[in-house]
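Hey team,

Filing this mostly as a record. A colleague (T.K.) asked me to run one chain through the structure pipeline before their review meeting, and I want the input and output archived in the tracker in case anyone asks later how it was produced. No errors, nothing strange. Just documentation.

Input sequence:
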Amino acid sequence: MNTISRSNQRWGRGVLTAVLFVAAVVQAAAAPPSKANVEKAMNAAYGKYRDLHEGKNADYIPALAEVDSNLFGIGLVTTDGKVYTKGDSEALFSIQSISKVFTLALVLKEAGPEAVQQNVGVDATGEVFNSITAIERYKGAQENPFVNPGAIATTGMVQGHEDADKWGKILQIHNDFAGRELVVNEPVYKSEAATNQRNQAIAWLMSAYGRIKDDPKMVTDVYTRQCAINVNAKDLAVMAATLANGGINPVTKKQVIPADDIPKILAIMATAGLYDDSGIWLYNVGLPAKSGVGGGIIAVSPGKFGIAAFSPPLDAAGNSVRAQRAIQDISNALDGNPYAVRPADKRVSTR
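Output structure:
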């Protein structure tokens, strides 16, 4: 063997070794956290924030104002299916806007990402979540699936022209993500249905611009029921972990949605998941997340875990105060931030 051949062989082995090393580092970086670390982080966050009483319950939906503001639960599920809970993790509450994530997942599965981008849009609007002026400005385009106009249009895109067709599919996708059968919180649904005139107006305006093809009144009602699905912090953690695990529910092992759809969902969660404070959240925490005015928040650490927390009192932007802080602390403790690429020796610092 000549010198050049031996050199090429050594170079090839060197490249292969480097590739295998990098793959091992990436796999290790995305590995789920240990039981001891999870329990330590969750205990610390729960103890730190259980007596925090900032914020107030949403009251524009009367039934939400009546929820016990002292409730505080945390759930975390790793991508290898380990389930951890703390506090009021079994307390049921309405999912509210977090449902937008899973209805989007259904529409991506049925219609594909191009249809969502063309009919709804995927950019942050720069307006409040229920803005009507944003619809007028862009004739129903350039919304996103997490503000109300885009969310109602997304619900309208679920295949089937009848109420029962759309609703059955929406409830089933939520069941598949949670790994159990969920039901609607009827008092919340009735309370919302009696006070959703603005959403009805949004639906009719989106219909006028051709973004909703079916009866706007029917689509609004399905959307309202969707937001009233009852969940708990444990359910939401399983649902978030399914997103973290490439669309496979880590508890039931069911492939709920294609893995190729996950980056699209997480991208919109990152840019529009926490209402007007989405940028602040991403800057401070780094996890794709989605909140709901019922007091829940989900967040996803890709390849590692899904986490959820529930506490009804909200800040001015409509996000649970205790849930935000608990998730941030737990994620920091478990190196959950996917943007935090650390040197191999964590002692190395440029500061």
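Quick notes for T.K.: Residues 1-28, 347-351 have pLDDT under 50 and may be disordered. The domain at 35-333 is CATH 3.40.710.10 (Beta-lactamase).
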